[in-house]
Design a protein that fits this description.
Blueprint (H helix, E strand, L loop, with lengths): L1 H23 L24 H5 L13 H19 L4 H5 L3 H27 L4 H26 L3 H24 L7 H14 L2 H26 L9 H13 L1 H9 L2
The chain binds zinc ion.
Zinc ion (ZN) binds next to loops.
Amino acid sequence: MIILGVFGAAFGSFACCQAWRIYKHDKSARSHCMNCSYKLKWYDNIPVLSWLMLGGKCRKCRKPIGAAEILSELGLAVAFVLSFVLWPHHQQLVELCGFEIAKFALFLIQLVLFAILFVYDAKWKEMPVPILIASCVLGVAFWVVNFIKIIVLFGFDQMTLIQLAGAMLILPGFYYFMYKASKEKWVGSGDAILCVPLAMMLGNFWLAMFCLFLSNMIGSVIMLPVTIAKKEKHAMIPFGPFLILGFLVVYYFQVLFLNFINGF
Ligand SMILES: [Zn+2]
């Protein structure tokens, strides 16, 4: 878990840098201060610790670095650890089932992409298309591994395909409809694309429903005070972060959600 946390923090740092690099179209490898261009030394680049020791300020010009960096590092560290602790097939993972290890690895890579999308959408209210496409590819790979696992362990089950179709209808389908119906006023096309990997990884109609519901609820609760404060009637809401948060809750607690549905 400590190793996962350290890796998570390092990749969180990487994700935040990638968001900036994509935004600035700057492929230079070295991290630098946005204000004075001070090139970060290795000891300025230690995730979380450097930020804390520098008090969130540039070593040279003392201008604040911003909260996104540390939040991204801490957030991904927590997400990496939680993914292991709350993994729905935890027992199989611990027993080193090959399929679960492959799924877990794909999930962690997906989390890094989600972190880039999260930071980018929160900062600039859009999501970079190459990252969205990479996320879709990972989502498909995740679903295929899970599909093969089900075939190997339980035999072919057409419900897997029907459930996937249901999930696709609920998440990307609904968001694409909202995007078209509102002429991009309510949701952006990026949200609809982000829903593809979410639906592939949930792979279940009901889980997709819960994800849709939770994302909208988290989004409303957090954005309502902001929207009122800004007095903007049609403020653009970066919805990607809420979709990702809703997805994570539903993914981690999917057994509870499915038991709840099966209880009816
Ligand atoms: Zn500086």
